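REQUEST FORM: STRUCTURE PREDICTION
Request ID: SP-0412
Submitted by: Lab K.M.
Chain count: 1
Length (residues): 315
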Amino acid sequence: MPLATTSLAGLTSLTVRQAPPSGTGAAVALTLRTWTLSRTVAATLQVIDVSGCYSLSLIDFVRSCVQLRCLWMPGCDSVSDLSPLAACSETLEELWMAMTAIGQVVILAPLEACNKLHKLDLRGCNFDYDELVGPESSEGVREAAAGALGSLAYKHHHNKDVIAAAGAIPALVQLLGSASARVRTEAAHALGILADNHVQNQACISAAGAIPVLVQLLLEPESKSFEDPQMAAARALGCLAKEDPPNQAAIAASGAIEALVWLLVGPEFSEDMQEAAARALGILADNHAQNKAAITAAGAIPAFGSGLSTGACSG
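STATUS: Completed
RESULT:
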């Protein structure tokens, strides 16, 4: 039954409860689109709590909630169409979907722009990251999902924990072998962010077999004309190696030093690519005598000296 607009005038918080249907068990959708809420009323809402609603559609409604800070949906049996959340990207701070059947990657791509999100709870959600790499998933969905995971994890320790616990790391490692250069780039970028200053994720990503695949990305044949996968791989390897001696050794053993020096000295590569390679080599060398010797033997020192004069390896 539609809610009267006048009863919600100036409202900042909205709580809705809906019991599961009895008898046949057929889903009864709660469609906020059907509510007679004017844009003026919706614009005042800062908190929406629809915990326990049996089925929920957010189409059109949330798009008008320009001040929305918190959206709580724990216990919803199903949720459809979260794309309107992109309109709240500058304000949304908390999203709780624990024990919610959200399905496939419906939540990820819209949240890529939610740069204020600091609390994300997906625990217990019916969400299978394997669907990112399944035959039914398009390259566009894979690219958007990997990019969204990187955005959610960036400088956000809690989100890194949630994403790793949900099983995203093996799926991202598998995406490193995608036929699409853009998907490979986003997957490598996300893995680097997940590893950055996160000891557990560094170990998990290494255990998932990412290191040799990332090293192979450094040597991609199209690297002279499309550097993004190489640059993302170099940065990811640096994040994996940071203050992690086992990973430093594993990365060197996979042939990364020679590949990074090749990217560093090749005149066909951009300064950004050379900078990424230089930074990764520096991290591999940090407090690691064997890697220092190997990097020197590979001819990196003259390239570093050249970078000091040209600026290619500055920073």
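NOTES: The first helix runs from residue 39 to 44.
Reviewed by: T.R.
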